[in-house]
Structures are given as C-alpha cells and as structure tokens.
Amino acid sequence: MTSQHNLLFIHGLAGSGQGFKATYLRGLYPDLLAPDFPGDFYERMAQLRLLLANSTGWTLIGSSMGGLMATVYACTHPGLIDRLVLLAPALNYIDPEDNTLQLTDIPVTVIHGLRDDIVPIDKTREMAEHLFSNLTFMTFDATHDLNAIVPLLDWPALLAH
What we know:
The protein has helices at about 20-30, 40-50, 65-75, 120-130, 155-160, and strands at about 5-10, 60-65, 80-85, 110-115, 135-140. The chain has about 160 residues and is α/β, with parallel strands linked by helices.
C-alpha cells in the first residue's frame, strides 16, 4: 500500500524505529518515516519539531510515549497535523490544567488495551476527551504493547482522509 499523505510513526520509550510496530507499518506503507527518538521527552520533542519543521499534511501514529509526543505536537501546532492514530498513548502525563495544549478537531483514533497495566485507560480516555473533539476511542482485550492487535487493525480505514 502507498499513502497519499506523510506518515510518521513515533515509537514509545523503550521502542525504536526498527521495532515491531514500525516494521509492520513500513511493510504496509513503504514511505512511512519511523526514526529513532533517543533521550528524554524534551529531547525527543525537539527532534520531532526539527523533523516536521512546521510542515503540513502529516498523519502521526504514536505508541505510548510516542502517542504523548504526537498529542503534544498536534495540540501545540494547530493546523499542521491532519490526523492522529494513538496506540496506548501515555496521556496520563499531561496536566489537565496545561493551557498550552489547544483543543483540536482533527480526526483522532485512540486504541487502548483493556489489560494495559502501564498506561491507565481511564486517564487516557479522560485526557483524550478533553483534548480531541473528533475522537474515536477503541478498546481491545490486550496489554500495553498492542502487538497482537496491530496486525488486525484496518489501517487503510484508520489512515483515510
């Protein structure tokens, strides 16, 4: 499959651009970018800002901390991101009182495992509903890594514009 828009996969804290999800998605979408994001959250965000350089037309797929990064970027750069697909995003690290994050109406799909013992699903749902007005929240009988679920998802539908 090829995409008609820019796709970026942002891995989680312990992940990499060569991990399972990135490799699987690159098999579906050869033009997918999946760089390594080393360092702490702030270093990773600086790298993300440099990579995207205020360009438009991006769909961000973020896993765990990568989902947090995608969310923060989309909510602080309104109009630059077309869509988010967030896999067990670590939204529990966002302060609900942080007024630097703007409500966004871009299409956002959150996919979360019901047996996730790393990122609390209730906090993820609460923050997602706070930040995204065009939200689809999907749950599966899965743990945090969602590796068993990723191949079962309808990626063309998730990424459709």
